Fold these 4 entries.
Entry 1:
Amino acid sequence: MSETTLDSKGRVLIPENIRKKARLVGGSKVRVYIDNDIVMIRKSTDPHEFILENEGAIKKGSAVKMVDPIKLKKIPETKKR
């Protein structure tokens, strides 16, 4: 865990060791959530990258219903936080 300070414009500097672990670089997109008093920052995944990461996860003939990967990506985005 690291501690940082908001500047006068509300910006937060993510410490270098955390940026490296999360593979965040300048210009990376992140999502910010709040759950009660906990602020969470999560690395965004673009739809193309998401599809490539999950391609082949569900095989044809599986008991699991085939689903459009874009619809799967929207599930965590719509989950009540």
Entry 2:
Amino acid sequence: MTMSNLLIALLAILVVWFLYRRTIQVPATIDLEATDRELHAHVILDGVEVNEGDEVLVHGAPTHIALNEKRTMTTRATVSKASLPRRMWERVMGRTRITELYEVGFEG
């Protein structure tokens, strides 16, 4: 095997490792509130910790809630765990992208 073929094979292995995601089905609790004092939607995942690069899809979540309503329900969620290189990449890029949150403009 030549050196260029070895580098291409190594690069292919790294790309597959970077893109690989392991999926887990977990129970989840959804807490919704739309009152004059609070407006929030929280999801609590049971038995899994979410890290950088992970994706969460909550199944069966309501699309809206009426005003002055509180609702708590249990459902399922699919968590796609990021690989180690993806997690490190997201950690580094997250620190550089945080400045996007600071862009504030004032017109007078």
Entry 3:
Amino acid sequence: MFDPARRRWVALTPEEWVRQCTLLRLHAAGYPLEVMQVEAAIAVNGMSRRCDIVVHSDGRPWMIVECKKNEIPLTQKVCDQACRYNTVLQVPYLLLTNGRQEVIIEIDYSVGRLIQLKELPPFVKKT
């Protein structure tokens, strides 16, 4: 399958299918492909990890997207994984998806609280 964000062909695994569908969904919702980084490398507690998708706004991470294949339920463990990545990136939004379900979370750093949203936040590029 051709990945429009990475601009290359990739193997179509079950998780990659979810990732590609999510990329297209975000793009259709107004998120430019140019601001989406797929398999973004980060270091968490000295260990190399990869975020499925990181959406950037004004050159800074803005949303972490964690994709799982359809059979994997969106459990607390999946949320914890995205939150661990966020200890490094400090984004305001998390999106967890398995292609059938999605959980959208806004992080309120002022009170240290996660707020589940009903829909994607609009992508706004600050100038």
Entry 4:
Amino acid sequence: MAKFRLDEVDHQILDMLIDNTRVPFTDIAKKLLISAGTVHVRVKKMEDAGIIKGSSLTIDYKKLGYSFIAYVGVFLQNTSQTKFVLERINLIPYVTVAHVTTGKFNIFCKIRAKNTEHAKDIIFMLDDIDGVYRTETMISLEESLNDKKRLMHDIFREM
């Protein structure tokens, strides 16, 4: 499959959508001095090429009472148990991200909890999964960087 070529207009469209996925195409068009139809066609092309995959919104979990973030490294008894363990992890809604990794851990998870007591219960749920040898937890004191734009800007500079 040929590499999809993005131009500066595509880059600006992506930039605005990263800031707010719900921004109307008419607002994007006004800022870029192009038609809303052009924005629609370009977004559709980027979706068809797989560059844009759906859209999402950002939840302020702190306002919902889930301000505690921890990262849990999961050690497996055997790597052949990875799929089974991931299926069980998927049943724990407080695990918001899970990566299969190389290095120290077999699986690396991000959890959200109400407080330390709740986090302990979640970690025990992970520990209780058949095939989990042990876990190692790191508490997040603060999310200092969560910037979806920096990499995209660098990719565009390389093009």
